Amino acid sequence: HPPTAYRNRVFCLPDSDLSMRTLSTPSPALIFPPNSPGFQNGRGSSTSSSSVTGETVAMVHSPPPTRLTHPLIRLASKHQKEQANIDRLPDHSMIQIFSFLPTNQLCRCARVCRRWYNLAWDPRLWRTIRLTGETINVDRALKVLTRRLCQDTPNVCLMLETVIVSGCRRLTDRGLYTIAQCCPELRRLEVPGCYNISNEAVFDVVSLCPNLEHLDVSGCSKVTCISLTREASIKLSPLHGKQISIRYLDMTDCFVLEDEGLHTIAAHCTQLTHLYLRRCVRITDEGLRYLMIYCTSIKELSVSDCRFVSDFGMREIAKLESRLRYLSIAHCGRITDVGIRYIAKYCSKLRYLNARGCEGITDHGVEYLAKNCTKLKSLDIGKCPLVSDTGLEFLALNCFNLKRLSLKSCESITGQGLQIVAANCFDLQMLNVQDCDVSVDALRFVKRHCKRCIIEHTNPAFF
Q1: Are strands 162-166 and 430-432 parallel, antiparallel or unpaired?
Q2: 338-358+367-462 has which CATH code?
Q3: Nearest of 398, 389, 387, 390 to residue 424 by alpha carbon
Q4: 324/297 Cα distance (integer angstroms)
Q5: Structural domain boundaries of the chain?
Q6: What is the structure's pLDDT at 242?
Q7: CB 438 within 8 A of CB 413
Q8: What is the pLDDT of residue 22?
Q9: Residue 300: what are its φ and ψ, rounded to 5°?
Q10: Closest CA to 104 of 194, 170, 60, 44
Q11: Of 47-61, 128-142, 367-381, which one has max mean pLDDT?
Q12: What's the CA gap between 205 and 223, in Å, rounded?
């Protein structure tokens, strides 16, 4: 056997650590193919699992051995000893370093030596699982990971609070059922772009994870409803004892979501504060009416590209009154000054408004908005051809806290309007005037008065 000093230098494992894990303890080592570039000579490279081609599987391994027994192993040179200084770091420093690694890299670290194995499986590092990439066999990876994390508490993983699986086409309902069944303390679930997820999987999660507060199913086109009943048509009243605790819900690009599904979601998720329905093209004003009946605590709402939402929908959203801080109605072509007046009149604490592409908005709508929502910090009225320098003057004289302003492709805007804004809104940090007919002198005027402002423009003479 190699000398004791060599063994201590490589593994840094005191006798007291040997009892922490048995040699038969299984754990997922690498979440990528064994023949991939990231797996050579038993060591994981820095290559992300998302860049690996071929079928990806979760491998199960035992902890590294406590000593090196191969007869050909030679003592390390002085130069090699200097490269192993990382082993001199105390455990708490190593755990802090490991906390910045994604799940696949953390699994690789567990294969380095016995000490790293024990540190990599410290419960503090496993409050979050993060997996990305199209080739990962996510269902199998989640099964192996949860099995390992349930080692000390059979069938229940009490430490895992966050699961993020992004763009993994091989994630199915089976994988989410594994999480729902084993992780009752789950608080955050993000599965954007995992289009094989269905309503069944969402039902399993929300019914078995009562503490779930953050749910992102954006791009999951099969998800049409979120409820505590398998029958989507059955609704619960807000006074019903059993409700879903979700506060943040992102259903961007859930194209099949309709008013009836939104009605069911609203009836079950009455605690919603953040709701994003971007490009849910089947949603209408009727769906928003259902939403406002049950979800009266919404602070942020996006209905961008919901082409059937009109001024009547704005009247419903205005019922949120001073609670509403963020609203995105970009490219909702049926919204005009009338809808803006509803929002401005009742939602006086609005901080962010994205109305890009709402071509029915004019200077009158901007005037009413500026006079009633004086604490506005971010405004996007790009591609609103009827907004001119007159509207900008109302903004400049009322919204002194404005930090971000987008006027992209506003045909009626000139340099005069920009100068009025710059002379009054000193805290302006971002200005977008791309495809606007503004002079170089006007842009220089803005730069002189708003020194921290980043100007996005298409004037080649200004630099």
Answers
A1: unpaired
A2: 3.80.10.10
A3: 398
A4: 8
A5: 90-125, 338-358+367-462
A6: 64
A7: yes
A8: 34
A9: -125, 130
A10: 44
A11: 367-381
A12: 13
Please say whether the beta carbons of 398 and 374 come within 8 A.
yes
pLDDT of the residue at 170: 85
Residue predicted with more confidence, 294 or 107 = 294
The two three-digit tokens of residue 165, written as one number: 């699986």
Q: What span, in angstroms and rounded, lies between the C-alpha atoms of 320 and 325?
A: 10
pTM, 2 dp: 0.80
Quick count: other Cβ atoms within 10 Å of Cβ 52?
23
DSSP string, 36-51: STTEETTEE-S--GGG
| Nearest alpha-carbon partner for 245 in 226, 259, 223, 219 | 226
Q: For residue 255, give every residue at least 6 positions away whose Cβ sits within 8 Å of its Cβ, in sequence order, or none.
A: 221, 279, 280, 281, 282
Q: Which two tokens stand for residue 354?
A: 């994205």
Average pLDDT, rounded, for the chain: 81
**Fold classification of 90-125 (topology level):** Monooxygenase (1.20.1280)
Which pLDDT score, from 0 to 100, does residue 227 have? 79
Lowest mean pLDDT across 76-80, 333-337, 342-346: 76-80
Tokens in use for 391? 């509207």
pLDDT for position 55 = 36
